[in-house]
Amino acid sequence: MDTLLVTGGCGFIGSNFVRYWLSQHAQGRVVILDKLTYAGRRENLHDLWDDPRLSLVVGDIADQALVRRTCQEQGVTLIVNFAAETHVDQSILGPLVFTDTNVRGTHVLLEVARELRLRLHHISTDEVYGHIPDQHQSVETDPLLPRSPYAASKAAADQLVQAYHITYGLPVTITRGANNVGPYQYPEKAVPLFATNALLGEPLPVYGDGLQMRDYAHVHDHCTGIEAVLLHGRIGEVYNVGTGREMTNLEMVDIVLDVLGRDHSLVRHVTDRPGHDRRYSMNVDKLRALGWQPQYDPREAVAEAARWYAGNEWWWAPIRSGEFRAYYDAQYRARLAGTGQP
Ligand code: NAD
Ligand code: TYD
């Protein structure tokens, strides 16, 4: 059984993946390498730190000596790279760290994997395809046309991973995930932001007309999709992971408010995000052909996520009342002051 180096394992998807992987693979061993940025939180794995199959190294994926030493000392055979700066709005406010971690950090992991002859699985995103016109669904061979600093850094990483397979024969696989929702998602992202604002009785800042389309997929289905590729995927291949169905942001907001029993008067249309991608949509047939299928449709995924925030104030209340406040003010104070339709 492989020993996994899970980078970014204290973040939202990484922590869900670690929990899922250890629940399914009794002989599994996981070493997390995580810098513990604002989005990386030990409490995301509060129930697992006593498990002898799990260990944590605190550090940066761009630190080549640390990555090499960790892989050698821990007998790592497979790197699963979740570590990233992940929020589009943060990438608009401060883009350089996105290049440091998402591009250079991924490049360092590839170099260590090449040196030590390890397999690397990279977690990419549907945002690398850019805005998708109506009637089209992205397939894995489509060109990458990213439009935000976040998406551009993820596209660069995605292409570096492919280049290492082509040039050096490095055994790699890539999954491109849709918008994930579920437990432990930092409340900067739309669904947890809206759920926690609703629970706090604060307005929900919807960018522009709110008719942008997203495939809101439950993080559980992303984890099973990654597992399917790790176990059955073809080396050198890319796989889309999502539900294959989209909804508008306003539909998502309606589900959140209905589940939480809050009034729709909380919705505020605010100034749009610069360069906001109107629509993401992916075809997921290639992953389905490996025997994978999602358990949640997007409506259930959003509803289930909203319910988790209602039941887990212990997790999000300290974030909302602490460090998150400064970001929230920078991002929303002026927007919310000029309320009304855009
Ligand atoms: P997150 O922001 O919740 O967590 C990111 C984790 O990476 C944190 O634990 C953070 O501490 C860690 N990290 C950041 N910089 C690091 C560095 N230099 N070295 C080591 N660790 C570092 O992110 P997430 O939402 O869980 O996303 C995980 C991955 O999935 C990312 O690669 C992201 O691009 C991708 N993805 C996310 C979504 C989504 O909807 N959230 C969708 C598709 C793909
Ligand atoms: P987000 O969760 O940031 O994911 P992404 O931009 O990577 O898809 O946002 C999801 C959608 O919600 C996106 O269309 C932007 C929109 N949005 C808002 O309308 N208001 C907000 O405050 C946020 C954070 C997002």
Automatic annotation (TrEMBL):
Q: Which InterPro entries match?
A: dTDP_Gluc_deHydtase, NAD(P)-bd_dom, NAD(P)-bd_dom_sf
Q: Which PANTHER family match?
A: DTDP-D-GLUCOSE 4,6-DEHYDRATASE-RELATED
Organism placement in taxonomy: Bacteria, Thermotogati, Deinococcota, Deinococci, Deinococcales
Q: What organism does the record attribute this protein to?
A: Deinococcus sonorensis
State its Enzyme Commission number(s): 4.2.1.46
Asked if the keyword Lyase belongs to this entry, the reply reads yes
Q: Which Pfam families match?
A: GDP_Man_Dehyd
What family does this chain come from, according to its entry?
Belongs to the NAD(P)-dependent epimerase/dehydratase family. dTDP-glucose dehydratase subfamily.
| This protein's name | dTDP-glucose 4,6-dehydratase
Q: Which Gene3D superfamilies match?
A: NAD(P)-binding Rossmann-like Domain, UDP-galactose 4-epimerase, domain 1
Domain of life according to the entry: Bacteria
The catalytic activity, as recorded, is: dTDP-alpha-D-glucose = dTDP-4-dehydro-6-deoxy-alpha-D-glucose + H2O
Indicate yes or no for the key word Lyase. yes
Q: Report the cofactors.
A: NAD(+)
One example GO MF annotation: dTDP-glucose 4,6-dehydratase activity
